[in-house]
UniProtKB/TrEMBL annotation:
Pfam families xref list: ABC2_membrane_4
Annotated TM spans: 52-78, 99-124, 327-347, 354-374, 421-447
Keyword annotations from UniProtKB, A to Z: Membrane, Transmembrane, Transmembrane helix
UniProt keyword Repeat, yes or no: no
GO molecular function, one term: ABC-type transporter activity
Organism listed in the record: Limihaloglobus sulfuriphilus
Keyword Glycoprotein found: no
One CC-aspect GO term: plasma membrane
Name of the protein in its database record: Gliding motility-associated ABC transporter permease protein GldF
């Protein structure tokens, strides 16, 4: 253990002397404060805070990840190239201790820099409302829609699965009898298209029509607080510059539908206008939720809109925690990335030259940032290509780390989404522990068999 720490200290000193590390530190120290001044978002205080936190977290994550890849790939290669390692391997130090010392030293650098820049982002973010000329309403909106950790609940499907399957089969048979099935498509592909069309038709609202979403397991932390309905409206035709006029109702409507008086308050919104293709939020009192966590949200497309709309991404959000701990969990997710990339760079440096090692490592990093997108795109392949993908590309993608979607903390912070400790723990086990241990183990195996200097007599 003492040998590992000695090598780790030397690695820390070497990393901090590198020009790359100094440039990254200097750039972030300058860019982050400037970014807090020049970002405006949509012109509101909420938009400004969201824009800064999004750009700040993404920038710090990307630059520290690229720096971790570069330094971890370079450190061992540098000592081999300039023969500094020759003296060390003659000492009573095992090669596994050398690699572990490199890894520990670089991780100390990662933790220190991540803590520094995340602290800067946090300090600027929480103090932005104090130094902005805003109204009390804007400040309250930021407190409820940003400085919180909210859990999200999706509604039940608009059509039950049995009914959806029956309607899809009926439409498929009708198209088949009329010889109108798409040419060159498999049965599964046709059914997927038909199911999507039926669901879209069920969600479409013409002028004067309404729709009710049903939610379960909605448990706000405090009945005195508000909960939020997040949605996005899509218009089939142009909606005009005034947006879409809608009216909403929320509560436990089960007894109301039976003609009885409901046990809990029912919320009726004023007429509101919302732009299309933009995520919006509606605040409703939390006391409309039933004791069993049941909630119904109804929306009417008012008759004078004269346009058919499709509500999408409807979700109920309610507060589960505070901003500080949620931000800390976001930083832990970034640290998981740095752990994997550092282990990968140290491992690659044992059997690849520096240019090849850094090229492969950066390629894997960028694949990780679009891993989920690649997965979703390749799932739409035809049956013949899909079979090839299943047995070749898909297993390789499964081995790659995931840095996008749920594994990207920036959108979670921007939308004030709760990052669960259970998710963070699984991410640590899968990426920072399992994948990193495999990479370090592979590096130790290769390094133990590597001929560092040829013996000549």
């Amino acid at each position: 253990m003492a040998n590992i720490w000695v090598i780790a200290r030397n690695t820390i000193a070497h990393a901090m002397r590198m020009k790359l590390a100094l440039v990254v530190i200097a750039l972030l120290l300058v860019i982050l404060p400037v970014l807090s001044v020049i970002t405006t978002g949509d012109g509101t205080l909420l938009g400004k805070v969201q824009s800064f936190s999004s750009y700040g977290i993404s920038l710090v994550s990307m630059m520290l990840c690229l720096m971790a890849v570069a330094i971890s790939c370079y450190s061992l290669n540098f000592e081999l190239k300039y023969k500094q390692l020759y003296m060390l391997v003659t000492k009573p130090v095992s090669r596994s201790e050398i690699l572990l010392g490199k890894f520990v030293g670089l991780m100390v650098v990662n933790v220190l820099l991540l803590a520094l820049f995340c602290s800067i982002i946090y300090a600027i973010t929480v103090n932005m409302p104090r130094f902005s000329d805003t109204t009390a309403e804007d400040t309250q909106r930021v407190e409820t829609e940003f400085f919180a950790a909210r859990a999200g609940v999706k509604p039940r499907p608009p059509i039950e699965e049995e009914k959806l399957q029956s309607l899809a089969l009926e439409r498929y048979n009708r198209l088949k009898n009329a010889d109108e099935l798409p040419q060159g498509s498999t049965v599964d592909e046709v059914f997927r298209i038909i199911r999507g069309q039926i669901i879209m038709q069920a969600k479409s609202l013409g002028p004067g029509e309404d729709f009710v979403w049903r939610f379960s397991n909605v448990y706000p932390s405090d009945e005195a607080e508000t909960i939020f309905v997040r949605f996005k409206l899509t218009a089939v035709t142009s909606a005009g510059s005034d947006g879409i006029a809608t009216q909403w109702i929320a509560g436990d409507l089960r007894k109301l539908e039976e003609g009885k008086r409901p046990d809990f308050p029912v919320y009726y919104s004023d007429i509101r206008r919302d732009p299309t293709r933009t995520a919006r939020e509606l605040q409703i009192p939390a006391n409309v939720v039933a004791e069993d966590g049941y909630l119904e949200i109804g929306m009417q497309n008012l008759h004078y809109n004269q346009v058919t709309i499709i509500p999408e991404d409807v979700e109920v959000l309610y507060k589960r925690g505070g901003f500080g701990m949620n931000f800390f969990r976001a930083c832990v997710i970034i640290l998981v990335r740095l752990t994997f990339l550092t282990a990968m760079g140290v491992s690659f440096s044992t059997w690849l030259s520096f240019p090849v090692a850094i090229f492969v490592a950066i390629t894997i990093y960028f694949i990780g940032t679009v891993n989920g997108f690649i997965f979703d795109s390749l799932e739409l392949l035809s049956s013949s290509m899909g079979l090839l993908y299943t047995f070749t590309i898909k297993p390789l993608l499964s081995l790659m780390p995931k840095f996008d979607g749920r594994f990207n903390p920036s959108p979670m912070i921007v939308s004030a989404r709760m990052i669960e400790w259970s998710f963070v723990g699984l991410n640590i086990l899968a990426t920072a522990v399992a994948r990193s241990l495999v990479l370090i183990g592979l590096g130790i195996l290769v390094f133990n068999r590597k001929e560092i200097a040829r013996i000549t007599v």
